[in-house]
Amino acid sequence: CNAFTPGMQSILNVDLPKKDVAITMMETSKNGHFETHDGKEDNKAMAFLRQRGKVGGASAQQYINAVGSDEGLAGKQGKSPSGSLNKAKAAFKECTVHGIIDDMSEIFPFTSSGTQWAGVTDRMMGGVSNGDISRQTFQGRNANVLHGKVSLKNKGGFIQMATDLSLNPSISKSIDASNFDGIELTLFFEGPDNKQDFNVHLKTDACTRQFSSYRATFSLKKSSWRTVRLRWDKFIGFGACVELTPLDLSTLRRLGIVAIGKEMDVTLGLSSIRFFRDD
Question: Are 262 and 194 in contact (CB under 8 A)?
């Protein structure tokens, strides 16, 4: 995809040792240093990238919003970048208190409910899709913007922006959203097609396999902000362990907004996401 910065392209395409398949990164301070999420294996990957001159020093700023390649299981969060939040961690309310998952009022990659956004591509399974996620003024609104190219090569075919939902995973890795009726998103799609389908993927405690999730599909027309409501009964179990297991709203862990299943160029803006109740 020609729209990527050279730095972004290289971080996604670097040839890592197989056991150190790339990483999800986030900014940890204003001097452009990074931190990874998955302990020893990620540290080895970061060391390898530094040896190749891909991260660290003056070049690091190019990779702040890079889409990583390992979704992992739900419930993993990195340490909070010191000095980046607009308020103290203790001041955040979990998303089930007011229903707001993110209104884009915090500094990226943080949500307004105190969790963190990350990017995910199909490179975790050998695919070649590319993307980046950033927070910017987009079509007149403060928004997360997922920009990329989905490729079906090597049996891949997705990019996504995702966040864990629990504010305090050390206490509980899941939240209870059973008092709500579904999820509401406000989005803006740009691309070569006049209309495009996207997914929302939910992970619960039952999603013990990497690719297991509950999925709902929605359509967006291009070039205008639209609000989409997805009721819980729209979500269908996909993958091992959940195909025949009802969605348990008391154990929600993770949410992803996904471009999946077909070759496409994607620019997708998200200005708000929340739980809703029927009036």
Answer: no
* Residues 254, 208: Cα–Cα separation, whole Å: 12
* Separation between Cα atoms, residue 186 and residue 274, nearest integer Å: 9
The list of the chain residues with pLDDT below 50 reads 1-83
Q: What is the pLDDT of residue 88?
A: 81
E-strand spans in the chain? 26-27, 34-35, 100-102, 117-121, 130-138, 141-150, 158-164, 182-190, 195-204, 213-221, 225-231, 236-238, 252-260, 264-276
Provide the token pair at 55.
């991260």
Say how far apart CA 64 and CA 45 lie, in whole Å. 16
Residue closest to 33 by CA, chosen among 91, 3, 78, 71: 78
Which residues are CB-contacts of 131 (< 8 A; sequence separation ≥ 6)?
A: 12, 67, 119, 121, 146, 147, 148, 149, 159, 266
Q: Which pLDDT score is estimated for 278?
A: 93
Q: What is the pLDDT of residue 210?
A: 82
